[in-house]
Amino acid sequence: MARTSRHEKKKTFSNIGETTPVPEHPSLEEVYEETPFSEAFWTYLNYVMLNIFGWFRDLLRNARIENRKGSAENNPTGFVPLYQSYESFYTRNVYQRISDCFNRPIGSVPGGKLDVLERVTDDYNWSFQFTGNKITSINLGSYNYLGFANNSGHIAENVINTIKTGGIATASTTQEFGTLMQHQKLESLLAEFLGTEDAIAFGMGFATNALNIPSLVGKGCLILSDELNHTSLVLGSRLSGATIKVYKHNDMIHLEKLLRDAIVSGQPRTHRPWRKILMIVEGVYSMEGSLCKLPELIELKKKYKAYLYLDEAHSIGAMGSRGRGVVDYWKCDFKDVDVLMGTFTKSFAAAGGYIAGNKDLISHIRTTSHATAYATSMSPPVVEQITSVLHLLLDDNEEHEGHRRISQLAWNTRYFRQRLTKMGFIVYGHPHSPVVPALLYSPSKIAAFNREMLKRGVAVVTVGFPATPLVLGRVRFCLSASHTKEMLDEVLKHAEEVGDLLNMRKSKLNPKRPFHETEV
What we know:
Aspartate Aminotransferase, domain 1; 13 strands; alpha/beta; globular; three-stranded mixed sheet; 14% strand; Aspartate Aminotransferase, domain 2
């Protein structure tokens, strides 16, 4: 769609949202470019050299020639070691070198900009000291998709009033005295927002998966899990006692093969039919920026009479013309997804998670889940934060705040992705995903990119092995409705500078070429 030219009025939060609707025709296309051979070679060599020098330094430490600065386990008899030997080795000799790029403390709300607390080290990252300075930076690292992470405004005032009247904790579980009227109102709004019969909220997003999957499946059941599913889904699946089979990421052919084999062969040894077959997927995969192929998943679910569990942690609020996640984005029927799960920690700038579905499902979870029986229910001010945001998102008027934020995020995502791609970076993920990973390859570049961007006033998250494959270290940009076009232009300018400094702009599928704003 054509945009206003540079001679016309300056784009503001409101006029971008008004003139740029979310695309009506989603695409399944995602392109994943291979790491260039030269980068793969140098990355492997980088790790080989780090390991060689690491083993040599460990010999010096064991011989007491070099001081051992890290803590060491005494290996007491009769106890399982806390760490695997290589895990400890990797932490000492690889992670420690770049640990200043991780666990950075901040001193402000994680809005469009944030304050990073400056730290220095005099012992090569074994310890850090605060300088007392703050580095004000454009925030591309937080999951503040809709820009609600604020400490001022009417939502913040509502939360403060709730603290004054209802306190900060329920001091009880959902099944005891932890259910307040506010919780019931929130769950009713959630069901309305998602178009389901009922919903239930929990105090922790990770536990929503880890503690509820075991209440849905158990022994004699089969879980088919995407290979890139989040750790909370993996843990919940393991705790359930069900048989788990993993399929290649977003590979519907592989998934269908596993479904057919499961129906034909049944359970191991007995060959009895599986009690349930549950497919578990994410809406937006947080490390790849990819979307699940929901229309095909629903087709397979119906064809083979399986169940579908959809984790919308990174997509609820951030995807779809109404912010209702990937179901909304793909224009699917919410009732075709058996278990709708999501978290409030990202688009809602709160805490906790939810599960939505039919009344029988939610009633079963209320009575059998460890999360309702043993975990303290959601804090009242957190409930108020989520409820206030839901009221905004339920208002479909395009002139109002909720819709403007959704449209702003969609425009920011397309603009940033297209410009980054045309700069020659290897960019992963779906064209409309607000999670934008760009490949950095080696651990040295992971650290260098992070440090150089912070020097230029941009806070980013960089990740590498073991969170990613060995040669696919990356920077993960997270877009937000709180970012202005001027902020994004500044980030892109610095990314281009650092990209040239580190020789990162090596895409063959998308070589460097001019960008025209009319393409957004």
